[in-house]
Amino acid sequence: MERESMEFDIVIVGAGPAGLAAACRIRQLSEETGKDVSVCVVEKGSEVGAHILSGAVLEPTALNELFPDWKEKGAPLNTPVTEDKIFLMTSAEKAIKVPNPLAPKTFNNHGNYIVSLGNVCRWLAEQAEGLGAEIYPMFAAAEILYNEDGSVRGVATGDMGVAEDGSHKDGYMPGMELHAKYTFFAEGCRGHLGKQLIEKFQLNAGKDPQHYGIGIKELWKIDPSKHQEGLVVHSTGWPLSETGSAGGSFLYHIEDNQVALGLITDLGYENPHLSPFEEFQRYKTHPQVKQYLEGGERISYGARAIAKGGIQSLPKMSFPGGLLIGCDAGTLNFAKIKGSHTAMKSGMIAAETAFNAVTAERKADELTEFTTAFEASWAYKELHVQRNFGPAQHKWGNLIGSAYVFVDLNIFNGALPWTLNDPKPDHSTLKLASECKKIDYPKPDGKITFDRLTSVSYSFTNHEENQVVHLQLKDSSLPLGENLSKWNEPAQRYCPAGVYEIIAEDDGQQRFQINSQNCVHCKTCDIKDPLQNITWVTPEGGGGPNYPNM
Q1: Is the pTM of this model over 0.85?
Q2: How does residue 87 score in pLDDT terms, banded at 50, 70 and 90?
C-alpha cells in the first residue's frame, strides 16, 4: 500500500509552545500581508496538550508579543504569582528559608503566572486553527524525508496497525508523507528526529554535550485551609544532597485548591543506586511539603526530561530545509527553570524567517538568517546572561554553585568575562555500583508516597497493544552482560514508569524485560543509559500519557 502525500509551505513537528507559537505567527503574517503561507502541525499525542508536562510558572514575555490581547482572548493564565519562597532543605526534618534578597534574581517571579502548560498549549492550538493552521493530533512524525540534494523535504508519519513482529494487523494504515518548503522540528527535549538531525548535520560540533534533568510531577487537590493561591515555593538540598546529587524542587499553589509539585533530578548524578522517582517520594515527606499534602488527594502524575545545558550546549539550529526550535534544540533557561517563553520566541523567529523565505519563493535551502535573528533576540541574550548557572551547579554543587550564581547574576548581571563549560555527558557520570552506597528507600504509605505502577496509572498512559516496541536496544546482550555487573542495571531505577525490569526465571536465569506499555515518553532512558544502548523512537500516534491539566 503506497503512502499518500500532502504539500504544505511549512510543516511543524510537535504541538508544544514552540511549534504552536510558530504556527500562530506564520498565519498572523499571512493575514497581515495577504500572502498565504500554509502550515501543518503534527502532534503524536492523542490531543494537543496530552504529552505536555511542566511545572509551570510561565513568564508571559513571548505571549505578550504574540497575542497582546491574550487576556481578552481567554488564555488560561489564571493565577498570578503572589509570593516566592526558597528553602535549603538541610535534612529530612529541617530547612532554612533563604531570604529573597540573597537568592539569585532569576527566582523572582513577580509578573509571572502559575499555569497548566498543557492547557496553555490547548489554547494556543485554538488560536492557530482560528488563524488557518491545520493541526493533526494522533499523527506521530516517525521519519525524516530528504530531497536528492540532502536537504530536508518533510516528514512521514508512522504506520498504524503494525504488530510487534512487523506484520500488518487488521486495519493497517500506512503513514502519510508531509512535504514542505521548510520543516520545523519542535518535539521537545531529546526529540528523536531532532537527535537524528543533530548527528546528520553535525549541528553540535564545537559545543558542550547537552545536559538534562528528569522532572517528576504530581498534581494534588488539597485542603482549602492550606491553600495559598499564587504561592511559589522552590527548594534544594535534601533528599538529593545525601548522595551528592544535584537538583531542586517546586511546589506551586494554582487555582481551585490545587498544588503542582515536583522534583528535578540532574541526570549527571553518579550513584547508580539512585532512583529519581523514589527521591521524589522522599521529598514529599519533608515537613515543608507534607504540611500541604496531608488530607489532600493526588490527581495526576507524570515525568519529562528537560534540556538544561544552556547556550554552551545549544546546537546550530538551522540546516538545509528546516530548523530545530524550542527544547528540541535546548532553549530552556535553567537559571529560571523556565523554557516556555524562550521556546515560543524561537518559534516566532522561525516563523518570521521562513515566512519571508517562502514569500520570496525560496525552499529547502538553509535559513541562515534565523541564527542572526535569534542571537539578536531577548531570548538568546537572556540565555547568555544566565549561561553559567548550570555549569556552576555541576562544578561546585548546589550551595557553593548558588553562591557563585548570586554574585554572577545579582551583582554583575552575567557580565563576568568568562563562560564555564561542562564537557562530561550525563550518561558517562555513573560510578560503579560497587563503589557507591546502596540506598534503602522506604515503602510507600499510599497516602503521601506511592509505588511506581500506581503512579503511572495517574498519567493515564496507554499504548496500542501488540505494536513494535518503541524502546529499541542496539545490543540486547548489554543490559545483563554489562549494565547489571557494572551499574546494577540502572534502567530499573532511573525510569519513572517501571518500564525496565530484570525478571528471574524458574530455571535461575535472568531476563531483561521492557514494559513499553508503561512508557510516559520522558526520554530518560535514551539520555542516561551508560552505554547509550537504548534508543527511544515514536510509538503509534496517540500512544503515551494523557495528561489532564499538567
Answers
A1: yes
A2: very high
